[in-house]
Amino acid sequence: MNDSVSIGWIGTGVMGHAMCGHLIAAGHRVHVFNRTRTKAESLLAQGARWCDSPQAAAAGSRVLFCMVGYPRDVEQVILGPEGALSGAASGTVIVDMTTSRPDLAVTVYARAKAKGVTALDAPVSGGDIGARDASLAIMVGGDKDAFERVLPLFKLMGKNIAHMGEPGAGQHTKMCNQVLIAGTMIGVVESLLYAQRTGMDLDAVIDVIGQGAAGSWAINNLGRRIARGDFTPGFYIRHFVKDMGIALDEARRMQLSLPGLALVHQFYLAAMAQGEQDLGTQGLYRILARMNRIAPNVSKM
Ligand code: NAP
After folding, report:
1. What is the DSSP letter of 256?
2. Which pTM value belongs to this model?
3. Residue 105, domain extent
4. Mean pLDDT within 91-112
């Protein structure tokens, strides 16, 4: 797939907009659909063509990408009456990059195969920064030959790209990622609350501990945002709650106890209950700061 490929793209939010932009910049012919058209306008200005439905975006596309919010959105835009599968010609590859349920990935794969189409589940990690810099980790489930066909396009969006196995394996890998992120986020937030209570400068603390054994993407990127009082997404709290819910459901199904994940899920549910669902995940800092009556000494508390 080195030549210009006809591509469909559904979902032009925080992640999808940047990822789709890389495909356009590489010279591919991209047909775009999003629920809110205005969020696709700048991609249209770059040369993408607007479609009125997922079905229309899939028609004539060799590869159809989807980067929407929730599993219910995936069901609608791929399997729904005007969904991509109803417009996809035989031989098309449908690639769902949304973080979604592993069992839904298996269903999409089976429904696609019945039409002579194939499907990959290909969730990503690396956040809004990774999407902008085309440095995402991309974890893929589905047929290896379909993965190989799409790999040149994945390389335009990411750096660490791996085929993880059968349909659903990409989503299972993403759940491993989210379990780890959950533990990391509570660590980042509690570490910086401790720093703030002692009166230390948060950036000075991150300068040191971010480079040692406690270093992580979260402390060095989201910790910095906390330090400057920036709680904008990034990665929405409401999406993280969705992901932890999927991981806990899967764990229950496998009779796997994950008490740390369950606890962090509860803290983020409290954030939702306080109306903070549209903050970035670093917004958990605000919830625990309130619990501790920590004075807001950062700019946007
Ligand atoms: P977002 O900004 O909400 O983008 C989702 C986009 O999909 C929106 O533009 C939305 O349309 C569109 N959409 C949703 N349902 C649709 C439907 N039924 N039909 C058509 N368009 C629909 O979310 P995001 O941050 O890009 O995240 C997308 C996915 O990636 C989520 O599953 C998230 O968990 C995952 N993810 C996010 C990050 C991150 O750091 N942000 C990192 C890794 C993975 P509207 O414009 O109308 O809302």
Report:
1. -
2. 0.96
3. 6-166
4. 98
